[in-house]
Write a structure and sequence with these properties.
Radius of gyration: 15 Å
Strand order of the largest sheet: 1-4
Order of helices and strands: HHEEEE
Distance between the termini: 24 Å
Helix content: 25-40%
Strand content: 25-35%
Oligomer: single chain
Number of helices: 2
Largest sheet: 2 strands, antiparallel
Number of strands: 4
Number of domains: 1
Length: 91
């Protein structure tokens, strides 16, 4: 699956599931769903330059984690990106 396959038509159940997931993630991050969608698209775009990924299996979450300085919790971005193959450069 290439980068453009991410934009293929999905059934309404998958679209609703993706929107709900994005809404929950954006609520935790205190940012809009539109910003979260742009972050997801940017991650897909950049990583797709170097490797073939399974965009359907991409999972991005924002959670809270303890800071390294032990001064409370901070937001953390976790991305689970299934890699199908590495792209080999001609260099």
């Amino acid at each position: 699956m290439g980068f453009m396959d991410f934009f293929k038509k999905k059934n309404s159940g998958d679209v609703a599931k993706d929107r709900l997931k994005l809404l929950l993630i954006s609520d935790r991050a205190d940012c809009s769903p539109e910003v979260m969608e742009q972050i997801k698209n940017d991650i897909i775009h950049v990583i797709s330059k170097y490797m073939e990924i399974d965009a359907e299996g991409l999972d991005i979450q924002i959670t809270q984690t303890e800071s390294d300085a032990n001064n409370g919790t901070v937001p953390a971005l976790f991305a689970n990106i299934p890699i199908k193959d590495l792209k080999h450069s001609g260099k």
